Amino acid sequence: MKRIKLGILQTNHDKSVEVGDAFPDDSHRFRDMFDAQDDRFHYRIYMTIGGEVPQDLNEQDAYMITGSPLSVLDQHVFTDDLMDFIRRCDAAKKPLMGACFGHQAIALALGGTVEKKPDGYNVGIEDTHYHTKRPWMIPDRDALPMYVFHEDTVTTLPEGCDLLGSSKNCKVASFAKGGHIFTTQFHPEFCNDFMSCVLRFTESSIPAEERKSAWDSLEKDQEGHIFGLWTTEFFKKAMTHA
Questions:
Q1: Sequence-ordered strand ranges (E) for 1-87
Q2: Cα-Cα-Cα-Cα dihedral sign, residues 138, 140, 145, 148
Q3: What is residue 62's predicted lDDT score, i.e. its pLDDT?
Q4: What is the DSSP secondary-structure string of 88-138?
Q5: Which domain holds residue 85?
Q6: Which of 32, 190, 29, 25 is nearest to 124 (CA)?
Q7: Considering its fold, how many domains does the chain have in total?
Q8: pTM for this entry
Q9: Could you tell me the CATH number of the domain that includes residue 22?
Q10: In which band, very low, low, confident or very high, does the pLDDT at 104 lie, cut at 50, 70 and 90?
């Protein structure tokens, strides 16, 4: 099979010395995750954080939207164009995956609701329990432990979308629409060193009890790479049926 042309919409550009200068950016973390697989992609990074979104959906075979410390509930320079891009992908049934901010943006663009969690941040490693399976979710797992760091959360799914998975602290942790949209609130692309760095950098804003729980959870194994395999299968199957 020819290499998939994957467009990555980067909605974050961390300029901090402690995090941004110490680790690769979001796009490179996803590239590293995908490059560990047997399949190989051709990548095109869109600096959506600066207002860049694809004008022609056929520029790439498939797209994904990264996470971001920004809130989808705020108005950003790229908000209107990103919302329009998501709706165009949906109308054309263009393969689209969203993680964290991307997951929330897709829900919001298609008519769902996103709100701030009343109990504050959800941080650490947490299991997503999958109630519904899709053909691309191979190897099969009933639950996936993955890194998580979010305050906003999807509270109502858009019409036509199906809830796939929930976690202890996140009811809408993953959803799909048809065979062309797939999301996760979590971070399959994170590694322990990066998550630990982000937690150290932000822990002063997290209540002590939640902070301890987050650090304790990082002792667990995580399986973000499995979600990465699912995403690759999702792109391949969605392209076949596009």
A1: 4-9, 41-46, 62-65
A2: positive
A3: 98
A4: HHHHHT--EEEETHHHHHHHHHTT-EEEE-TT--EEEEEEEEESS--TT--
A5: 4-241
A6: 190
A7: 1
A8: 0.95
A9: 3.40.50.880
A10: very high
